[in-house]
Amino acid sequence: MAQPRVVILAAGKGTRMKSDLPKVLHPVCGKAMIDYVVDVARAVSSLTYVVLGHQGERVKAHLGSGVNIVFQKKLLGTADAIRAVASRFKGYTGDVVILSGDAPLLTKETLRCLIKGHRQAKAACTFLTACLPDPAGYGRVIRDAQDSPIAIREEKDASFDEKAISEINTGIYCFNTKALLDGLKKISLNKKKKEYYLTDVIAILASEGKKIHAFVVKDAREGLGINTHKDLAAADAIMRARILDRLMLDGVSIVDPMTTYIDSGVKIGRDTIIRPCTMIETDVVIGGHCSIGPFSHLRPKTRIKDKAQVGNFAEISRSTLGVQSLMKHFSFVGDATIGKNVNIGAGVVTANYDGKNKNKTFIANGAFIGSDSILVAPVTIGEKAMTGAGCVVTKGKRVPKGHVILGVPGKIIKREKPL
Fold this sequence. Notes:
The protein is of the alpha/beta class. Helices cover 20% and strands 31% of the residues.
């Protein structure tokens, strides 16, 4: 399949979000919604344009390299946004795919099917539709007596009967480039909204006898756009269910998916068990045969090695827990590197922040950190060393291999019999 070019529309103000953060940067399962759209675009094309407007520089900084940024100078609607990028298609005769930056639930498989169906139908335009029990807020698909799509009616312009139509436009299109560019020239300003609607191209092309094809998505949720925080929460739940399903199919045991929150980008090895009320944020890697939770919180840049255990009410951030190490109860570990076969006792805290810097803790293989120990980073605990219960290991301490540190503040003594 020849590659199309892809345009992602992300210029709008997103006023219904009532947020200072650009709408497309709001996270869905720990990942900005526009990043999902960019991932889908890259699955079908190596050439993607993102049209930006409101807080465009902020979104541009987030996207970085890998996409072509085009700015819409005035926010005059979706058709005007496409006009902003139209000059890039001079001499191009292939297809153009148009995606919405606020529709992160679209899958790569569905987009590939849309493009394939467009080409098989030899259509001037194919657009993705969905049937919803409550279509309020979406443009309705108007069909003729032969059931062919002939227009998209925005809700503000729809008649009473048209508002009863359940088939909605998702804002995802595949156009023949020439048909798109010709249609754009004929769009008039919408008098109510003072904008140029891309949806008007459908009626223009249909009136000229050009073939319009509607591809109805099987799972209507793929076409859902995000306009409010309520929509955002719904999208988050759908994406989270997808993530959990994939992990379970890969051999991870999730005791209660309803109370387990795992972000996008998390990697977990087979035969690991995730117990209820656990939150695992993005950029966490967990090995195989581990046990996590219940009530655990693993934050970004955490690495849990094979056969390690993290128990109830434990939090780990930017740290590594080594092979077969245990952290079973009521503890916090941040900015730490923990070796293998280490025991982290109940109530242990690495005091990693001194008000200015995040400081490091190093715990070597086989060490035993007694209950309620506080490690005021930076500290180093040597191989098979031990801290006594309630010990405070003060800043800069290095406990040698096989030694014990006791008391407040901790004092180092040599252990008579090694573990």
